[in-house]
Amino acid sequence: MIKAIAIDDEGRCLETLSLLLQEYCPEVTLLATCRSAAQGFEALRQFQPELVFLDVEMPNMNGFRMLEQLGDFNFSVIFTTSYDQYAIRAIRYSALDYLLKPVDPRELESAVKKYYQQRPTVAAEQLRFLLEQVNGRNNPFTKLAVPTTDGFELIPANDIIRCEADDNYTYLFLRNNKKVVASRTLKDIEEQLKPFSCFLRVHHSFLVNLNEIVKYTRGEGGYLSMSDGSTVNVSRSRKESLLKWF
């Protein structure tokens, strides 16, 4: 069983999350629901949860400030938020999970499943990276937190030439012939890279940096020649979106 608490100033959101967890994620035991950061601090001390569902936008102290106040922590976080473009971008860049309100049951199940796959120690490091990004919000994001088998790497987005799917893992091919194995699906990596307009999914197995394309060769779907000398197949279904970019 997973010991969890939820912190959100909206009572209806807490009630909905509690019901969804009971129905779709029975392995999660919600020990407390908190309507403020102050109540959240108390519940953290009392219950020592493994997982925290944390609202980003709260009066007096938002979720990010609350984490800053905690300093050291040994739990994982799934953020809950209404659409806040900056907050979501920051969370994506840090490779952390979030749920968009109103919470979708399938997304909730997926987020809890990812919790099993991610070590809390790695999550804590990612949270610290997130807070650095939030505190420097006047600076554009340039690096991504990419989970690996032994931690996570901070990778400049512009260094990524292409990404290739391998089941639940993704190979990131970087400049200088470096390759990083991310313990995330290609779909997850695509989500992280969404704010960068220069990345495009050209095949169910491939995502490319458009600035690193050297040549496109026509065919049924065709293929791309990349700056690192590799070739990437283009699927018929994604050919049109690629040609529109050209």
Automatic annotation (TrEMBL):
<dbReference type="InterPro" id="IPR046947">
    <property type="entry name" value="LytR-like"/>
</dbReference>
<dbReference type="InterPro" id="IPR007492">
    <property type="entry name" value="LytTR_DNA-bd_dom"/>
</dbReference>
<feature type="modified residue" description="4-aspartylphosphate">
    <location>
        <position position="55"/>
    </location>
</feature>
<keyword id="KW-0597">Phosphoprotein</keyword>
<dbReference type="GO" id="GO:0000156">
    <property type="term" value="F:phosphorelay response regulator activity"/>
</dbReference>
<protein>
    <submittedName>
        <fullName>Putative two-component response regulator</fullName>
    </submittedName>
</protein>
<dbReference type="InterPro" id="IPR001789">
    <property type="entry name" value="Sig_transdc_resp-reg_receiver"/>
</dbReference>
<dbReference type="InterPro" id="IPR011006">
    <property type="entry name" value="CheY-like_superfamily"/>
</dbReference>
<dbReference type="GO" id="GO:0003677">
    <property type="term" value="F:DNA binding"/>
</dbReference>
<dbReference type="Pfam" id="PF00072">
    <property type="entry name" value="Response_reg"/>
</dbReference>
<feature type="domain" description="Response regulatory">
    <location>
        <begin position="3"/>
        <end position="116"/>
    </location>
</feature>
<feature type="domain" description="HTH LytTR-type">
    <location>
        <begin position="144"/>
        <end position="246"/>
    </location>
</feature>
<dbReference type="Pfam" id="PF04397">
    <property type="entry name" value="LytTR"/>
</dbReference>
